[in-house]
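Worked Example 4.2. Consider the chain below.
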Amino acid sequence: MTTASEKVAEAAKRNVFARALKAPVTVPAGLAETVDRLLVEASLGALALANKAGEVVFGNAKVEDAIASGKVVALIHASDAAEDGCRKLDAKFRAAARGAAPAPIRLFSAEELGLASGKTNVIHAALIQGGAAAKFLAGASRAERYRKGSAAAFAEPVGSDTDKE
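Applying the procedure from the previous section yields the following structure tokens:
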């Protein structure tokens, strides 16, 4: 499966942007990687705002408590988290959501989550329902679709999108 990053690099190589715009275009080297970095930065910025809005909890125990309260809309696990801890939290979330739980987000490293939260060693987080959390979900979904090579990476946002406000 071709990733969106590979598709962007191939489009730049084949001069697709110039043909589409009907004008000469200079595509900077590393455009695909720059797009990926910007999508991740935007997502992490939205996570930081959701944290300030009180719509994120961090740490295994706090995530478990939030799941038990029934207010969790999504789980976030660091991409470098141990599978056992993720599996346990995922099972609790699925049970609380009666099987209708969205897949956990595993897009960011523990270091990236720590920078976005202002905390150290962030492995697990839970999003609490709210507008800022929805904006983060939209951004994270877009970044994940880009990395997976979805043609719809920018077509339709999932959840609330900052462009509509």
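The chain has seven helices and three strands. The helical segments are 4-13, 16-21, 31-52, 60-69, 83-96, 110-117, 131-148. Compare this with Example 4.1 before moving on.
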